[in-house]
Specification:
The complex is a heterodimer of chains A (607) and B (251). In chain A, a hairpin with a 6-residue loop joins strand 12 and strand 13. Chain A folds into 2 domains: 307 residues, 3-Layer(bba) Sandwich (FAD/NAD(P)-binding domain), CATH 3.50.50.60; 126 residues, Flavocytochrome C3, Chain A, domain 1, CATH 3.90.700.10. In chain A, helix 1 runs parallel beside helix 4 and helix 5 crosses helix 14. By secondary structure, chain A is an alpha+beta fold. Chain A contains 15 helices and 21 strands. Chain B folds into 2 domains: 107 residues, Roll (Ubiquitin-like (UB roll)); 129 residues, Fumarate Reductase Iron-sulfur Protein, Chain B, domain 2. Helices cover 33% and strands 13% of the residues of chain B. Chain B has a 5-stranded mixed sheet with strand order 2-1-5-3-4. The chains are: A alpha+beta (607), B alpha+beta (251). Chains A and B meet through helix 1, helix 3, helix 4, helix 9 and helix 12 of A and helix 1, helix 2 and helix 3 of B. The structure holds flavin-adenine dinucleotide, iron/sulfur cluster (2 copies) and FE2/S2 (inorganic) cluster.
């Protein structure tokens, strides 16, 4: 059967995925969305603080150009600049679009969008909907997608896990994907002319993080194992302020500091008094002291390192632990409820104290991956992005695209707060049209291809899952996962040492061996959560090696990557993108030039 | 306080098989929620009698009460298992059951697709002209947005649907349930949505629409996001009456 129209798949229904879907559907093309959870439950709902756009509502002479500069500087000059520029200039229009879609953004008295402050900038640039911005943005896109669903253009496959791409031959092109129905456990191959990955971040590689439980990075890892380059894997953002928890480290958004929250520890080491009884002059506001200009709103890499320094090197953390106060108690209750209600409720529910009256106890946690699948772009002569190019957001495998947190663009070595939601949405506005333009230029569509590669891939994955189901060793997959997380948190977060990184990689290989001795705790053929998890765990281990070896090789300090042995940024040798390619013997590293043609790298200062 | 948490979980292997109960004991930790208990069972899947069992299957994602995935009936009340802390429950056995108004898939996992279907049926979206740059949206009074925001926090968790005596996903033709109705109301609070509220009211006034609500108020009591559902229904009713009147007057 010949079908003349190209077919598109978007894997992932977070902000990046749904924006891609909308852009494809708006051009009149049918599109299939695959997501492990109903798209409305995607991790993007967790985003709290807001989305950046230099609209200059406060008359501070803010502009997209300054936003662009802040983004590049925030990323310690490792980001390709044309995409950052394109994103910063598109931001006001995108926030207006979200507004038109109905996002209940908080308002100024005049009825305009309100903006608050966030880290790494001196401007009020962050639009927000209370403190549940991600939820509100995702719902707005979900609603638009639902409209296309009712029109018959969008077909959702919710509760389906992407297992891997289908390539027509070695190196591509990508002509489809293999998916697992998480309810029936059936594995099927699907034909598509372009596939866009929008599967989010890999927080679970670190066991516990601020991420949702579905953020395993497994889909991206599978693409990497199928031949997609993985870029800058070593750049993992540690958020300075999270709440400890048995199951998850819940975020306390940067917006708490954007709205005036202050970070401090008692000046006296080992002070056991109730924080409310410690007078002002006996509190050490170490960020404000060291960074008079940016204060509590220094970028996250710096904030996390300072907290580490105060708690670990100086031993001044609360109760001798890695913990500091985040204090909002000087702000009026009504103001707090209005601007930060959603996150204060989280603290109240999970930590048990009322942050309106008691300073919060917070500590740094793994939060975001700057690195991800390598994707391309097409720049114009004046340093912007050619929005019509099929190259935008295409991986090194033709027809296979990536958008959102699962790819590596925009944020360089460190992401600025409230730039992720923006980059996710912006990347969707590029990836959708690019996929359409790519597929429109194809001579043969996937539907006309022989069954060969589809059947081969489907059988390969069926065998993989049969093997997993038959695993009957002594190891428990969840315990192994916990060990992986502890290992990565200990060695791959705020401070990195080469000897520890070498040991970490050796331990990772040990864990990979032990993976083969897992016993599948559930062998049922229906809604079995163990089998996919065991598969995901393997993929997490593969990614963990990419991250660790990238960090081991990079002998410098840049953004989130900090080595006391090499405390300075070294542009001469290391102003380059790390590229990892999968081989049976582990990741093969190489490096690529960064496009720094628009802003000259300078020393990165915030004091 | 006991050093262990005792859980009694209602299990079901498949949609058409018989449910059964299984007991588990997990070490008690400060601040632990129901999800951490289930994670602990997954790490060590043996029941209270020491028998090796398959770990119970459940849904979750965000673990901070914003994705709506992890709804269960805990000690008889529908709620989110991520934000239910063990320390806040009375001493003694904790029972976990799948919500009853939706078909069970396996163990604690249920099929809530009827809620998403209902969102399609009430046309829960704003019909924008396109995604190209058309400048800012309509100005909105801060107070209006605050009122609307409350409804936009609905995470489709289904607690309200579970508590509603008139709702049953298997009987969709009877009543589409509280959450989708509240969403139909939410869009009327947006200047663009107000322009085409009539389309949503068509669904709201349909056979399984607002008339299905008996005003029992159970829904509001269980909503984790404290959404004023019944207030929305009262206003929707007024909107519906107005439309009904306008329709018969042939306007
Ligand atoms: C607690 C928290 C707060 C944050 N707050 C902010 C903020 O205020 N501002 C900001 O800019 N950024 C914030 N971020 C970052 C931001 O939320 C994320 O980077 C962003 O939401 C990622 O969106 P995404 O579309 O790339 O992926 P996600 O929203 O993570 O979606 C991934 C999608 O992929 C699907 N998926 C994954 N794997 C598979 C598979 N194998 N098969 C099929 N489907 C799959 C999932 O079901 C999901 O639909 C925050 C992050 C966290 C953790
Ligand atoms: S008020 Fe209506 S919707 Fe709510 S529980 Fe009662 S009958 Fe159900
Ligand atoms: S209205 Fe409340 S209880 Fe009902 S689905 Fe929404 S959030 Fe859940
Ligand atoms: S896991 Fe998201 S609401 Fe509980």
């Amino acid at each position: 059967m010949t079908q003349s129209a190209p077919r598109f798949a978007v894997v992932g229904g977070g902000l990046a995925g749904l924006m891609t879907v909308i852009k494809i559907a708006e051009r009149g093309h049918p599109v299939d969305v695959f997501s492990v959870v109903p798209v409305k439950r995607s991790h993007s709902v967790c985003a709290q603080g807001g989305i950046n756009a230099a609209v200059n509502i406060k008359g501070e002479n803010d502009s997209p150009e300054i936003h662009f500069y802040d983004t590049v500087k925030g990323g310690d000059f490792l980001a390709h600049q044309p995409l950052c520029k394109g994103m910063a200039y598109a931001a006001p229009g995108l926030v207006y679009l979200l507004d038109r879609m109905g996002v209940p953004f908080s308002r100024t008295p005049e009825g305009n969008l309100d903006f608050r402050r966030f880290g790494g900038t001196l401007h009020h640039r962050t639009a927000f909907a209370g403190a549940s911005t991600g939820q509100q943005l995702l719902y707005a896109l979900d609603e638009q997608v639902r409209r296309y669903e009712v029109e018959g253009l969008v077909r959702k496959h919710e509760g389906f896990e992407f297992l891997g791409p289908v390539l027509a031959g070695p190196g591509g092109p990508c002509v489809g994907l293999v998916a697992l129905d998480l309810k029936t456990m059936e594995i099927t191959a699907h034909r598509f002319d372009a596939v866009v990955m929008a599967t989010g971040g890999p927080g679970l590689v670190f066991g516990r993080s601020t991420n949702s439980m579905i953020n395993t990075g497994s889909a991206a890892s599978s693409c990497y194992q199928a031949g997609v380059k993985y870029a800058n894997g070593e750049f993992i953002q540690i958020h300075p302020t999270a709440i400890p928890g048995e199951d998850k480290l819940r975020l306390m958004s940067e917006s708490a500091r954007g709205e005036g929250g202050r970070v401090w520890v008692p000046r006296k080491k080992g002070d056991t008094r109730d924080p409310r009884e410690i007078p002002e002059e006996e509190r050490w506001y170490f960020l404000e002291e060291k960074y008079p200009r940016f204060g509590n709103l220094v970028p996250r890499d710096i904030g996390a390192r300072e907290i580490y320094d105060v708690c670990v090197n100086k031993g001044m953390g609360i109760g001798g632990q890695m913990m500091v106060y985040l204090d909002l108690t000087h702000k009026p209750r009504e103001f707090l409820d209005h601007r930060l209600g959603a996150i204060l409720e989280i603290y109240e529910k999970f930590a048990g104290d009322d942050p309106r009256t008691v300073p919060m106890k917070i500590f740094p946690a793994v939060h975001y991956s700057m690195g991800g699948l390598w994707v391309d772009y097409e720049r114009t002569a004046d340093g912007f992005i050619d929005g019509d190019s099929p190259k935008n957001h295409m991986t090194n495998i033709p027809g296979l695209y990536a958008a959102g947190e699962c790819e590596y663009q925009y944020h360089g070595a460190n992401r600025l707060g409230a730039n992720a939601l923006l980059s996710c949405i912006y990347s969707g506005t590029l990836a959708g049209p690019a996929a359409v333009n790519y597929a429109s230029g194809l001579e043969r569509l996937a539907n006309d291809l022989a069954e060969g590669p589809y059947e081969r891939e489907r059988l390969r994955w069926e065998r993989r899952f049969d093997e997993i189901r038959r695993m009957d060793g002594p190891e428990n997959a969840h315990k192994l996962h916990r060990e992986l997380g502890e290992l990565m948190i200990e060695n791959m977060t705020i401070v990195r040492h080469n000897d520890a990184l070498r040991r970490t990689d050796a331990r990772l290989q040990e864990l990979m061996e032990r993976w083969h001795r897992i016993g599948a705790a559930d062998t049922a053929g229906w809604t079995n959560q163990e089998l996919p998890f065991i598969n995901q765990l393997w993929n997490m281990l593969e990614l963990a090696r990419v991250m660790t070896l990238g960090a081991l090789a990079r002998d410098e300090s840049r953004g989130a990557h900090y080595k006391p042995e090499f405390p300075e940024r070294n542009d001469e040798e290391w102003l380059k993108t790390t590229i990892a390619e999968w081989t049976p013997d582990g990741p093969k590293l190489s490096y690529e030039e960064v496009d720094t043609s628009l802003v000259k790298p300078v020393a990165r200062k915030y004091d | 306080m006991s050093q262990e948490v005792h859980l009694r979980i209602r299990r079901q292997d498949a949609p058409d098989s018989q449910p059964y109960w299984q007991d588990f004991r997990v070490p008690r930790k400060k601040g632990m929620n129901i999800i951490s208990c289930l994670q602990e069972i997954a790490r060590n899947p043996v029941d209270a009698a020491g028998r090796k069992v398959s770990p119970p299957v459940w849904d979750c994602s965000c673990l901070e009460e914003v994705c709506g995935a992890c709804t269960m009936v805990i000690n008889g009340t529908p709620r989110q298992s991520c934000s239910t802390l063990v320390d806040n429950l009375p001493e003694g056995t904790i029972t976990l059951e799948p919500v009853a108004k939706f078909p069970v898939v396996r163990d604690l996992v249920v099929d809530r697709s009827a809620m998403f279907r209902a969102l399609r049926d009430v046309r829960a979206w704003l019909p924008i002209d396109g995604t190209h740059d058309l400048g800012p949206g309509p100005r909105r009074a801060p107070g209006d947005v605050d009122e609307a925001y409350v409804f936009s926090r609905c995470m489709t968790c289904g607690c309200c649907m579970e508590a509603c005596p008139n709702y049953d996903a298997n009987d969709y033709e009877q009543f589409i349930g509280p959450a989708p109705l509240a969403q139909a109301y939410y869009f009327s609070k947006h200047p663009t949505g107000a322009m085409n509220q009539d389309e949503r009211l068509e669904a709201v006034m349909g056979a399984n629409g607002i008339t299905g609500c008996g005003n029992a108020q159970n829904c509001v009591e269980v909503c984790p996001k404290e959404i004023p559902l019944t207030e929305a229904f009262a206003r929707l009713n007024r909107q519906a009456n107005r439309k009904w009147l306008a329709d018969i007057l042939g306007r």
